[in-house]
Design a protein that fits this description.
The protein is an alpha/beta fold. 43% of the residues lie in helices and 16% in strands. It is built from 18 helices and 13 strands.
Length: 399
């Protein structure tokens, strides 16, 4: 059963298809790229380049392959045949007025980006599709539980919500077919047990500074190996590195990023958290909650094609802001707390950040916490629960 919930990014996808001859959709496996493309362009033939026969034809005779789709098509997992990009360039350039002819999807960003940069630069728009957002679940008629850790633990992959697959069934399959098989093969991992230990340790550090040397020491590999493994996860859209924010060198404390997962359910599963209660009571509670808030904001920005940069702030005196959203015309600092009770000391990091940035460039900021704020703001700072319907739009701005 294919998922039926409306994706917020579909409107942007349709618009870009009226402006560019090619639209490329990135995203992790199982995030719904194929179904989004099929639903948005039902008139286009869908072609999976993971099919052995299709793959062989596209690889051995790319012209014959493309000639079979004179009006265009949806090419799924196109990074499997990187040589197709240069041929696509020729076909696009033969009809420069054509728009929305080819829709490309892929789960490996590096290969897609390389093909786009070398052959399709200026000819394709790029979108990134992540798993469901709270807004999409709600609009699709799904009841949102009061306990956010039920959702954080379950995760947001479409099949979990549409096919009613239990996390205990979905994640072992996801890990076995991709994280244990495909990624290690791509990286030529010699000891898969070591790689699985790495995944557990990385997930257990969700929301923390990424220390490559420390991770490597724990499992007996080099920092360079850990860096390569993290990069592979990042290029597969499974993890997201949040870089530190600094206006200048004096404000910068660390060049190391924080690590987050694209989906909190996958992070929880890899960290061996097996129930919502365990997620709420574990030492990873705060990291998972931060992960959830960050991804909700990223999903909204990606769906509306908002050019937002996400960072975190840490001063030399120890003041922190969990998420700094740079929207170009303004900067929005967001402090994230998994507590259900608001406390005034939540404001300390925001106050420190605002002292460093001219007031004309910065919004008052927001506190995202797990309670139900009695007021919309305090001292000019927005108070919000990420489960609120208008949470992301209040922070990123209305469309």
């Amino acid at each position: 059963m294919a998922y039926m919930k409306k994706r917020k990014i579909a409107e942007e996808l349709r618009q870009l298809a009226h402006e560019f001859p090619v639209v490329s959709i990135y995203g992790p496996r199982q995030s719904g790229k194929t179904t989004l493309a099929k639903a948005t362009f039902p008139e286009k033939p869908w072609v999976s380049l993971e099919d052995p026969d299709v793959n062989a034809l596209a690889r051995n005779d790319p012209r014959a392959f493309l000639n079979a789709y004179p009006t265009g098509a949806v090419f799924d997992e196109i990074q499997k045949i990187p040589e197709l990009f240069s041929y696509l360039q020729g076909y696009v350039d033969m009809d420069p007025r054509a728009v929305g002819k080819y829709i490309l999807t892929g789960s490996h960003q590096a290969r897609l980006k390389q093909g786009v940069a070398q052959s399709l630069a200026g000819r394709t728009a790029i979108l990134t599709l992540l798993p469901y957002s709270i807004a999409e679940l709600r609009e699709g008629g799904e009841a949102i539980p009061d306990n956010v850790f039920e959702l954080i633990w379950k995760g947001f992959y479409p099949r979990l919500h549409e096919n009613r697959i239990r996390p205990s069934s979905f994640y072992p399959s996801y890990v076995a077919t991709y994280l244990e098989r495909d990624l290690p093969a791509l990286l030529e991992v010699r000891n898969r047990a070591t790689f699985l230990s790495f995944l557990f340790l990385l997930a257990s550090r969700t929301g923390q500074i990424l220390n490559l040397a420390a991770l490597g020491a724990e499992i007996g590999v080099t920092a360079a190996t850990i860096s390569a493994w993290v990069s592979a996860l990042e290029e597969s859209s499974l993890v997201f590195k949040l870089q530190g924010w600094s206006r200048n060198a004096t404000a910068q404390v660390t060049k190391s990023p924080k690590i987050y997962f694209t989906d909190t359910g996958l992070a929880a599963w890899l960290a061996k958290i097996r129930t919502p209660r365990a997620a709420a009571e574990s030492a990873l509670r705060g990291g998972l909650y931060e992960n959830f808030v960050l991804m909700e904001l990223r999903k909204e920005a990606l769906a509306r094609n908002i050019p937002a940069e996400f960072r975190f702030f840490r001063s030399k005196t120890g003041d922190e802001v969990d998420i700094v959203v740079d929207l170009g015309d303004r900067i929005v600092p967001v402090e994230v707390k998994s507590s259900t009770t608001f406390r005034t000391d939540f404001l300390h990091g925001l106050d420190a950040f605002r002292r460093l940035v001219p007031l004309a460039e910065i919004a008052a900021g927001a506190i995202a916490f797990n309670g139900h704020p009695a007021a919309k703001e305090t001292n000019g700072v927005m108070l919000a629960n990420p489960l609120d319907e208008d949470f992301a739009t209040r922070i990123l701005g209305e469309a």
